[in-house]
Design brief:
heterodimer, A: about 350 residues, alpha/beta, B: about 375 residues, TIM Barrel, 8-stranded parallel sheet, Amidohydrolase (chain A)
């Protein structure tokens, strides 16, 4: 096994909202009343059924409640265990599936305030991602601006499967706000389920949906690159979270080939896709979709032609590895240091800020 | 990028390649709109003139994403006698089959009845296309072999068309497209797999098609390049569906060819499937083996558009992960992203691997002596 080093940044932790009612204290009277009067149920996404094996490692599953709902467990099982100096919380709660932009806005505000009070205020190592109501660009930008005043928010969080491809100009005000405020956009696995979870329709099984996350990340990267997001926002970083990364080299071979062939269609793409990825795109470490031998993995890193792309992540409490094997076999100590410390710090500028609140 | 169109003295023939090759993706076209009418009942002539084909997309004519050149085809591939690229056998022979030393050419007709909403019309057009392949192409040049096209959304009718062509040596495979109404592993398509296995015909799954689903899991993108790149993601999820639904468990002799969707992604997809399968086996107990094993045993890949990394080592390592015995050379003639046979492989491939890649794998899979 490869040993982690102390002082790393865990870029993908999932604190769980115990229940929709846990957010009631963070809602106004109107929404508290809506939730109770209408008998709304918990917002659990199909992507991570609570009892599914991938939703929690067996030894990380609490006696009761949702995996990831206890700070003490997260401290013991992830932060202390792997010696992390920082942990970035990416709440996965079904607010993106909601169809009303007003409801989504109320739930996102409550979720972000809940994260501050229940998690960030209770452990100095924790940082947060701003969950946004993508159903309304105006409201999403307002929520980014509201939360960004607290510098413990280090990123904006979106899901990889939504209503429209993420490169579409429609979303650019979100990217402008994020770039201006020094926030990377984190794009996490998961779907709003407003479109079928694969590009060939609805499959039968959860396992299909989960495998399909990797293909969704591929199409989003195409969209982000060819629409010209990074020509307009050269300082914007985007982080693909729980995306897998071993698909990246062959994906770029194909995109590069077609870009050379039909670039007259998107003339603003004035750099090769690989260069854009190197300067603007990062990937979380887990899951590592590769065989367990170090040789193959090192070849894959060689195919990626960069040691700056990968950011350490446990994906806690999801089941991506057993025991202490948070780092795959065969990584050099130099690469471990880059993945765990250098690359995350180069990506998340706000980690350097000493004062966390203005 | 400006595309210069120059007059060419002769039919843009390539420098040529000495060894014989199999081209596993050639697209024959109709020269005129009514070229199919002799093979269609009178009823359908009037229907087509009145209503058109009624596909799972909005345009009456042309694709929803305009191609980068007419018919997505080479500008030097218009036959001298007129008609669109790929519509003349004699010109195909002169421009491609002869100079490139094609010993086996597999025809994959597009714009057939596949992906039409009216299933009776779909079936009639597919059957007509199959007759037309024999009469216009395979009976006139024995190097060419046809693909049985089928009304894919009507599994029972599709199976009947396959049984009708079973044993006919004009055909070497059944043709499906990757994008359908549902993922290809779904039960509605199983009669097709049953009939193909029974007939001993591999199934070619060509990229493209329309089944009404957006080409991303986040809706419709803006550009043609996104559709072109996106076909490889469609193919990945279609293959995942075939594996996870248990198609290869149920039809253990079925062989499938992934056509024009790339192959570089195959190792990563297989590793991901295996990794998730280890956790979620309980959801798919009908699978008796690891997903990667079904892929290794049942899937072949055509090469065009060839993976083109900067480093040839990366290409060779990727092919080793898949197997040199699983790749089938293809040019995609007459389409614009044609792969030139003499240039497609970098130096450093053994003669045995070259022979397998260019010819022997295809002959073996398609049962050509």
């Amino acid at each position: 096994m490869t040993s982690p080093i102390a002082g790393g940044v865990d870029c993908d932790l999932h604190p769980a909202v115990p229940h929709l009612t846990s957010l009631l204290p963070y809602m106004n009277d109107y929404w508290r009343d809506q939730v109770t009067t209408r008998g709304m149920t918990d917002l659990i996404s199909q992507s991570y059924p609570t009892n599914s094996p991938i939703s929690s490692r067996p030894d990380w599953r609490p006696a009761q409640g949702k995996p990831g709902s206890s700070l003490a467990d997260m401290q013991r099982q992830a932060l202390d265990k792997f010696g992390s100096a920082y942990g970035i919380c990416n709440p996965l709660y079904g607010v993106q599936m909601v169809f009303s932009e007003d409801m989504a806005d109320a739930f996102c505000r409550a979720l972000n305030d809940w994260l501050v009070k229940e998690w960030l205020d209770k452990d100095d190592r924790l940082r947060g991602s701003i969950v946004i109501p993508v159903q309304s660009i105006e409201k999403a930008v307002a929520e980014i601006e509201r939360c960004a005043r607290d510098r413990r928010f280090v990123q904006v969080l979106m899901l990889v499967m939504g209503d429209m491809p993420l490169g579409k100009r429609h979303y650019w005000p979100i990217y402008a706000a994020a770039e201006r405020l020094g926030l990377p956009i984190g794009i996490h696995a998961g779907s709003a389920y407003h479109n079928p979870p694969t590009s060939v329709g609805w499959g039968s099984y959860h396992i299909e949906d989960y495998v399909a996350q990797a293909q969704a990340f591929q199409t989003q990267l195409t969209s982000l690159i060819v629409e010209g997001v990074f020509a307009r926002h050269p300082n914007l970083k985007m982080v693909m979270l729980e995306s897998g990364f071993t698909w990246l080299p062959p994906f770029l071979w194909r995109l590069h080939k077609f870009w050379r062939g039909v670039r007259m269609e998107t003339p603003w793409v004035d750099r090769a896709p690989l260069e854009i990825v190197r300067s603007n795109i990062r990937f979380s470490l887990q899951p590592v979709d590769a065989p367990p031998d170090g040789d193959t993995l090192n070849r894959l890193f060689d195919h990626m032609q960069s040691d700056e792309l990968i950011l350490f992540s446990t994906d806690y409490p999801h089941w991506q590895f057993d025991g202490d094997d948070v780092l795959p076999k065969g990584l050099s100590q130099d690469l471990v240091r880059r993945i765990m410390i250098d690359n995350p710090h180069a990506t998340y500028a706000r980690l350097k800020m000493k004062e966390t609140t203005p | 990028m400006n595309i210069q169109i120059r007059e060419r003295p002769e039919a843009g023939a390539s420098a040529g390649i000495k060894t014989a090759i199999a081209d596993c993706d050639i697209h024959p076209a109709r020269a005129t709109k009514d070229e199919l009418y002799p093979y269609l009942a009178k009823r359908w002539h009037a229907h087509l003139e009145t209503f058109g084909v009624h596909a799972y997309q909005g345009m009456m004519e042309g694709p929803p994403y305009p191609k980068a050149q007419p018919n997505a085809s080479r500008r030097d591939a218009y036959p001298p006698e007129g008609g669109q690229q790929g519509s003349s056998l004699s010109f195909m022979q002169k421009q491609h089959l002869d100079p490139n030393n094609v010993a086996l050419g597999v025809l994959n007709p597009l714009n057939t009845g596949q992906g039409l909403r009216n299933q009776d019309l779909a079936g009639a057009i597919c059957s007509a296309i199959n007759d037309w392949q024999i009469e216009k192409w395979t009976s006139k040049d024995t190097r060419l072999k046809g693909s049985v096209v089928v009304p894919n959304e009507d599994g029972v009718a599709a199976a009947a068309e396959i049984r009708k062509r079973a044993g006919d040596t004009n055909f070497v495979q059944v043709l499906l497209l990757s994008r359908n109404v549902e993922p290809l592993g779904q039960r509605r398509y199983w009669p097709i797999y049953e009939a193909a296995q029974e007939a001993g015909l591999p199934i070619g799954v060509h990229a493209f098609g329309f089944g009404g689903n957006p080409i991303t899991a986040s809706g419709w993108p803006s550009f043609y390049i996104e559709e072109m790149v996106g076909h490889s993601q469609c193919q990945q999820t279609a293959l995942a569906s075939l594996v996870l639904e248990g198609v290869f468990e149920r039809f253990p002799k079925l062989k499938m060819v992934m056509v024009e969707a790339g192959f570089g992604w195959a190792p990563s997809l297989a590793w991901r499937l295996d990794k998730v399968f280890a956790r979620l086996h309980a959801e798919v107990p009908h699978l008796k083996r690891k997903p990667s094993e079904y892929i290794r045993d049942h899937i072949w890949w055509t090469t065009q558009p060839m993976e083109d990394p900067e480093s040839r080592d990366h290409l060779f390592q990727t092919i080793e992960w898949i197997g040199w015995d699983r790749l089938l050379f293809a040019t995609d003639y007459p389409h614009w992203d044609f792969d030139e046979p003499s240039r497609v492989l970098p130096a450093g491939v053994s003669d045995a691997n070259k022979q397998a890649f260019y010819l022997d794998n295809a002959k073996q899979l398609y049962g050509i002596a």
